[in-house]
Input
Amino acid sequence: MRDGDAILALAEQSTVWRCGLGRFAALQLSRCLDGSDSTASQVLRAGGAVSGFAALKPRVLSGFELTAVAVDGPTFFALVDWAAGSCPGNTALHTSASVAYDVSSGLVQRGFRPYLIQRTMQLRTDAPKLGALPAPYRFADLSEVGLGALMETYVQAWPEDDVDEADAEDSFRESDGLVLACDAAQVAGYAMWERTEDGVGIIHEVAVHPAHRLLGVGTALTTFAVERLRSSTSRIELVVLDDNPAERLYERLGFEVVEDLVFLVAAPPAIQG
Output
């Protein structure tokens, strides 16, 4: 897209209105701009310059995900209206926004409903090195244990999540970094991470089977991921839901909150223009 550089530059402005974009806005926008991560897009201009951009992509299970960036509120909500009109039928429209700005409250006023807050935490440079894996557990990789055994633990670790198991399997196969904690009988837990193109390490998931919690497995898995990322990344981050008690563990390991994203959903007829 010929406006790509202008859109990426727009996203770097501190006063910009945005949704569907977290701390790695440039990477997310790049995927939208090259067409690999969206099905429809819209560019708005003012005085010949790009004033806003929005993209829609289908979600794995249902509905569409909105990514948008704009110079001001009126332009932003014009993009929201475009997205609502572009969703077929009564399809739900999902997005996210930082709770530190007015974007989320503006979306609520237009018919969006918040349903969870995702907290991004960053590792301090003085974080301690903690968390050896307790006996009788051992670290293993996916080839030793097999995808089936990992998926059994995945389903037990996230029983309340409405997830696509096929998508989860693909994520495990393609992961940049993945380690499992096992005993003689089953997979007790796992940690999954990646390194972004700009040198940031992200711990995407640390999960422990309910039968193996409060034994130090989660601490050891988190520490393992940190040590794998520490020497090759400029900083290390992870995400956790705001009601997840694991946040206290991450704080103890040296992580601190740097951003909260509120996730919102609305059916297009509920969105007010």
